[in-house]
Amino acid sequence: MIYREAGQFKTSYGADQAIFPIVQDRVLVTLGILAAFLVPPLVADEYWLQAVLIPLVIYALAALGLNLLTGYAGQVSLGTGGFMAVGAYAAFKVTTAFPGLSILAVFVLAGLMAAAVGLVFGIPSLRIKGFYLAVATLAAQFFLIWLFNKVAWFTNYASSGTITAPPRTVFGVMVTGPLATAPVRYVVALGVLAVFALIAKNLVRGRMGRSWMAIRDRDIAAEIIGVRPLRTKLLAFGVSSFYCGVAGAEYVFLYLGSAETLAFDIGLSFLVLFMVIIGGLGSILGSFLGAAFIVLVPIFLTNVPHTLGLAMGVALQKQIELMVFGALIIFFLIVEPHGLARLWQITKEKLRLWPFPY
Amino acid sequence: MRTRVLLGLAILALLLGPLALAGFAQTNAFIPLLVYRTGPYAPSGIPIANGFVDYFTLINERDGGINGIKVAWEECETQYDTKQGVECYERLKGKSALLVNPYSTGITYQLIPKAPVDKVVVFSMGYGMSAASDGRWFPWVFNFPTNYWSQASAVVRYISQQEGGLEKLKGKKIAHIYHNSPYGKEANSTLEDLAKKYQFELTLLAVDHPGQEQKSTWLQIRRLNPDWIFMSGWGVMNQVAVKEAAAIGFKMDHFIGNWWSASDADVTPAGEAAKGYKGATFHAPGIGYKVHTEVIKHVYDKGKGAGKKEEMGSPLYNRGIVNAMLAAEAIRTAAVKYPKQALNAEQVRWGFENLNLTDKRLDELGMKGFTHPVKVSCEDHEGGGPVLIQQWDGKKWSVVSDWVPVMHEVVRPKIEAAAVEEGKKLGYTQRDCSKEK
User: Fold this and answer.
1) Within-domain flag for A67
2) Which fold has domain B2-147+287-384+423-435?
3) Which of A76, B165, B221, B346 is deepest in the core (most CB within 10 A)?
4) Whole domain around residue A135: which residue ranges?
């Protein structure tokens, strides 16, 4: 009744190919974006911004990057943590070498650096597929972490091997460093995410995304109809690593403030992969939903006993949290193997016929 | 009529509610505890958390708090993971936290930049960033009684004592096995400087998190055949290393762990073979001190103990006690200076900076001989206290050395240089200590 496109006529190709062809969608998404930008900085306290929303936005960007590679181009990667580390360390090196450079430009440069590294590690994808490719990218993960741990040049010879985000401003507002307030860092991270999500959406709707999906669905058939596997796969690795690199730089500069290589260990790669799988492979929305699920559910579970006033040892609480979280993941994978994005799609289809389904 | 009465009552409640709460808050000092009772570091994390909680229970039960200020705390599980640690800190700092004990060098590094902004004292007792020992650059961070760099210098001095003098170190082979993290790497630069100064051969061997796999490290040790091994390990890494050392038949009394690598959980899995293994510490092991009798009497006998009574007295449990005692004494120092009021973090910071823990005071606390006196100042947040060496005899730890002095002349200039570097990274300026009151 409410969600119905009857009477909305498209009179141009542009209107027909819009990202959100339905008016209701456009309104909803615009309102959602506005709310995301305005409400949390005004309403949320520092705990919510610092411990929940900022990591959520940054993980969403990383998941988006991995989704381009794994969900759209069908190349399984376990190197996300490594590529994020490349972005973080590149951003650190660039901004300490050129303190005057805008931090946003630094993020982009860090992404480009990560893209270059991603291209190198994407080369094996031409010969190996599936699980074997996962193992090859796993090698990238371990190698990169080892490299940053071993070579002191990357940390500017800090005795502890930790990189620290130096204070940097954008238009006179402190964005990184200890004095940057949480609302500012949140808005910057969200702004970056919004821009890159728009770019990603257009990439996958265009020629590039179509060739990725062709490779994913049947690589030999794709090759026969004229998709060049080398270029397409490498491009997927490059673009995906770019996103992960920017996310990695933000991870240190906007979220943690300082980090060691342990922050980018294999656990992070799995976490982002889980986000993509739970959210929905091959869906931009899925990346957001997956990140939200993985970030919000454990924090929700941690806070439940407190809110209910249950006195419980922290160790027991943590173990219960892990068990419930694991059970929830299995539950959602059984109920909807295509991820949370698919659930949303089904809801939308039902909503169109509501209240008179046939 | 009735609604009016209800309305009046509601307004009254609204007016009085905050007052009642304020009255409640006044008697409390809130301390968030970042602990890890689960995960690969739990063997190390559980005893230290228990010791900490037991001492504060003792203070509340026996003395009714610190100078009348009841201590309140809340545990938060970090699994020794920096992200979870930051989440815990953000959640708990809002409850007007006075100080935070991160119990992890990685989390300490995260909290150091936040401390002056949020006005929370970071008390990283014997861990964290060594450079933060220079209080002129890091007013909110304290790592007394002594830091990693001082510890490494004291261990080198102890080795020289065993060899018969500092000049005998020349040509000796010393290996440092370290946890490949900011924590493990801390000691490296001091060891490198000392190796240059005393001309011993230093080999640095990293073990990756979590440290279950060390075969290649010990293969290298076998080839190298060092005279001494120093280890900066944590959690499960320690017991694996002790077992591996036993497996290659290394002389156990030439294997010294730092103070996070020498507790019961680290040696018991290796059984008899661990006999002779040594560790650095800044307090005695065991339960032979008056403070332990008090804890048993006022905490465990009333059924309020955090752990099991038999587990008391392990080095890490005692470290928890020392940690809580130092924090409590710092709060007491502040409470003496600012009597009869609810302390804020600024005042507690003053208490930390002016802490002067004498032998006499330790005696009053039932800890004479248990740990060393400490004096903190505006310039020196470390104290540079001496170090003890303890040894495992197969059943228990016992102290086998006198207090080994640290090499202040080597460490302090390094600290001052590093503090400038680390401070500048965060955009800090140096504080003038002569202006502090």
Assistant:
1) yes
2) Rossmann fold (3.40.50)
3) B221
4) 48-265
Instruction: Determine phi and psi for B2, rounding to 5 degrees.
Output: -60, -45
Q: Which amino acid is at A91?
A: A
The string of pLDDT tens digits covering residues B167-221 is 999 999 999 999 988 888 889 999 999 999 999 999 999 998 888 889 999 999 9
Task: Find, among A339, A358, A52, the residue nearest to A182 by Cα.
Answer: A52
**Does any domain span residue A169?**
yes
Q: Considering only CB atoms, which chain B residues are within 8 Å of A50?
A: 86, 90
CATH classification code of B149-285+390-413: 3.40.50.2300
Among the partner residues B38, B181, B208, nearest to A319 by beta-carbon distance: B38
Pick from B312, B252, B266, B263: nearest CA to B51 = B312
Over the stretch B317-326, which tens digit does the pLDDT of each residue have? 999 999 999 9
Q: ipTM for the complex?
A: 0.84
Residue A315 in any domain: the answer is no
Residues of A in contact with B425 (CB under 8 A): 164, 166
Indicate yes or no: CB of A257 within 8 angstroms of CB of B110: yes
Q: Is residue A306 part of a domain?
A: no
Looking at the structure of chain A, the number of domains it has is 1
CA distance A7 to chain B (A): 49
Reported as a pLDDT band with limits 50, 70 and 90, residue A177 is confident
CA A204/CA A68 separation, integer angstroms:
8
Tokens of B422: 């680390």
**Buried (b) or exposed (e) across B371-383, using 16+ Cβ within 10 A?**
bbebebebbbbbb
